[in-house]
Every structure is written in structure tokens, then in C-alpha cells.
TrEMBL record:
Gene3D superfamilies: 2.40.10.500, TolB, C-terminal domain (2.120.10.30). SUPFAM superfamilies: NHL repeat (SSF101898). GO terms for molecular function: zinc ion binding. It comes from Adineta steineri. This is NHL repeat containing protein.
Length: 352
């Protein structure tokens, strides 16, 4: 179902899963627990790569391959509106807490951003110069992006084999050290509640994660590509559901793999955290709300969430099952799935 080429993956706070099925010009959506797509978005899309879903379940999809724009599909709408006009595909999309939309322009070697609070098509370059390079101010074929609540921009600088961090308002990035681990074509990146990085190391066929004791491999750690349940083949993107389970777009195998968070051991406390909105006269702030139980994971969900994606808070000893479960394969998501997103309701969205 996921086709031969899928890219962006997103899981929202309802555990809805979204996947960009690039080869079939569509976005696939699975509600929590579903094994077949609950919804398909396809009107007017051309090879979508990146996608992002907001807390009110609006879907932002890259439509830049030939259409040079980003489209917004309102929740339960049958049509879209264009929210950004750019000059190429967005391999990664992100919306920060200030309602700024970021587009990772792989072919242009830069990140652009536009406020969604205005209808004017005014965007600024926030990272990269438009020329490929490996200096602090340049990027080279970057893919995934993530913006934390301090507005630091993290970039999977793919062809430079590094992760770059750009402080808010700064055009010179710093390379995030990964200890003894050498990255080879990193494509996907996500942070947890404590700011620890999780990286899709594409041509090492694995996912690595950081923690209080440094970086380690956390999924597909054999060092070789393959199609077994413990292996990946050129993975592209990842996302967490509200239980801390990890979803990986295993692009080369044309499938989405789910690696379960191990919660039945004596490895410490794992707490799952969501963000609740606290509105004052001058600002809206995100305040963590979490629960913890020994050896298990649990989630406290507030009545109003300001973030649409899951920010799990893991223990220092958190581990995931060494064998992944195939949720969807090429029969469902076609031959070219790229973008994947799981919202906070655990609904899965896919760009195909």
C-alpha cells in the first residue's frame, strides 16, 4: 500500500499516522489501530515529500515538485489552499510554536520560513545560502528539520553527513557532535522532551539516539541493510506515537516499521509528556504535563494541546524491541513513500 517511494512520516498526539506517498502523488492517513488507510489526500499533489500536521489536524503538504508551493488541507476538507509559494520541493516541513512554517529545500541547499499569520507570500532564508557547501553557514542536500520550543533549528545536513543546529536568528550553524558514531547520509531528525536527538542514519541503515550517556544505536543495529524484522534498507524518516513507540519509514523496503518501546523491564522510569497551553495576556506558553510509573510508560493528555506531535520523555535506559513490526508495505503505500507523520491521537499520515 505505501508504494515504491515514500518520504515524510508524522504521528500526531492522537496517534494518527500520516505518510507522504511520493510516487503516487498522495498522502495516506491511518487512524489509531487501523491497518488500512482511513483517508487519502491526492487532489492536485505532485510527488509530495514533506508534511506537517497541526494540533487542529490541518495538514500541510509539500507540493513543490512542479507546482512550487505548500498546500494546506483543513481538517475534513475536500480541497486545499496554498500557503507558501516557493521554488522547489520541501523535503522537510515544520511549524514552530510561533506559527512559522519552515521548508527544507533540498535542491536549493537552504531552509526558508514564512509566518502563517499573514497571507502575504513573504519568506526568509533562515539557514543555508543557496549554494552547496560544508561551512557553518552552508548546507548540502539537507532533508529533515526540527524546531524546538527555544526556536533552535536542527537540520539533517544530509550530503555533509552531519546535524547542524542554528540558534534562533543565527545564520551560522554549529555541528552537533555524535560522539564515536559517524553519520552517513542522515535524513530524518526528531527531538524528545528533554532535547535528546534521534537521527535516521540512512546509509548506515539504522536509527541512533542520544541520551545522558551519549549516542547509541537504537534500531537496526546490525550495520547492514536487509529486509528482516531487525533490519532496515535506506530508511528516511521517523516519528514517535504517544506511547513512545518508534515508527520508521523504511524506504528501501517499501514499508513502515514499528519498533515497540520496551516497558516490562527494570530499566528505570519512562514518562510520556504532552504540552498543555497556558494563555496569558501577552503570550501563550507550553507547559509540560507528565506522569511516570516504574518500568512502564504512560501519558497525561491535557484538554488543550499546543503541539501536534509527541514529545516523549524517556528514561536514561530506554530501549526498543530489536525486531520491528511491518505496519504497511508497498501494497498499501505504493512504491515511493516519503513523508510520514503521527499525530497526538496516534493517526498516521503518509505522503506517497
Amino acid at each position: 500500500t505505501i508504494g515504491t517511494k515514500a518520504h515524510g512520516l508524522f504521528i500526531d498526539t492522537n496517534n494518527t499516522v500520516y505518510l507522504a506517498d511520493t510516487a503516487n502523488d498522495r498522502v495516506l492517513i491511518w487512524f489509531n489501530g487501523s491497518t488500512t488507510p482511513t483517508s487519502i489526500i491526492s487532489g492536485g499533489l505532485d510527488a509530495p515529500y514533506g508534511l506537517f500536521i497541526t494540533d487542529n489536524r490541518d495538514i500541510y503538504v509539500d507540493n513543490g515538485n512542479t507546482n512550487n508551493r505548500v498546500d494546506k488541507w483543513a481538517f475534513n476538507s475536500n480541497s486545499s489552499v496554498s500557503v507558501m509559494y516557493n521554488c522547489g520541493a520541501c523535503f522537510g516541513l515544520f511549524i514552530d510554536i510561533n506559527n512559522m512554517l519552515y521548508c527544507s529545500m533540498y535542491y536549493s541547499n537552504k531552509i526558508i520560513a514564512k509566518s502563517l499569520n499573514t497571507n502575504l507570500n513573504i519568506w526568509n532564508t533562515v539557514a543555508g545560502t543557496g549554494t552547496a557547501g560544508s561551512t557553518p553557514s552552508t548546507l548540502n542536500g539537507q532533508c529533515g528539520i526540527f524546531v524546538d520550543n527555544n526556536l533552535n533549528l536542527y537540520v539533517a545536513d544530509t550530503l555533509n553527513n552531519r546535524i547542524q543546529k542554528f540558534a534562533s536568528g543565527q545564520l551560522n550553524g554549529t555541528t552537533v557532535p555524535t560522539g564515536t558514531i559517524t553519520l552517513v547520509n542522515p535524513t530524518g531528525i526528531i527531538l524528545d522532551f528533554d532535547g535528546y536527538l534521534f537521527i535516521v542514519d540512512q546509509f548506515s541503515y539504522r536509527v541512533i539516539g542520544s541520551g545522558p550517556y551519549g549516542y547509541r544505536c537504537i534500531a537496526a543495529c546490525s550495520g547492514t541493510s536487509g529486509s528482516s524484522s531487525s533490519q532496515l534498507n535506506t530508511p528516511y524518516s521517523l516519528s514517535f506515537d504517544s506511547y513512545g513507540n518508534m515508527f520508521i519509514n523504511d524506504e528501501g523496503n517499501r514499508r513502515v516499521q514499528k519498533f515497540l518501546l520496551v516497558t516490562n523491564g527494570c530499566s528505570g522510569t519512562t514518562s510520556m509528556t504532552t504540552m498543555s497551553s497556558v494563555t496569558s495576556v501577552n503570550s501563550t506558553q507550553s507547559v509540560p504535563s507528565s506522569t511516570s510509573t516504574y518500568g512502564t510508560s504512560s501519558t497525561t493528555v491535557s484538554s488543550s494541546t499546543s503541539l501536534s506531535y509527541n514529545l516523549p520523555k524517556f528514561s536514561a535506559y530506554a530501549t526498543w524491541s530489536s525486531n520491528g513490526v511491518t505496519l504497511f508495505n508497498a501494497t498499501t503505500v505504493g512504491t515511493s513513500p516519503y513523508g510520514l507523520f503521527v499525530n497526538t491521537n496516534n493517526t498516521l499520515y503518509v505522503c506517497e
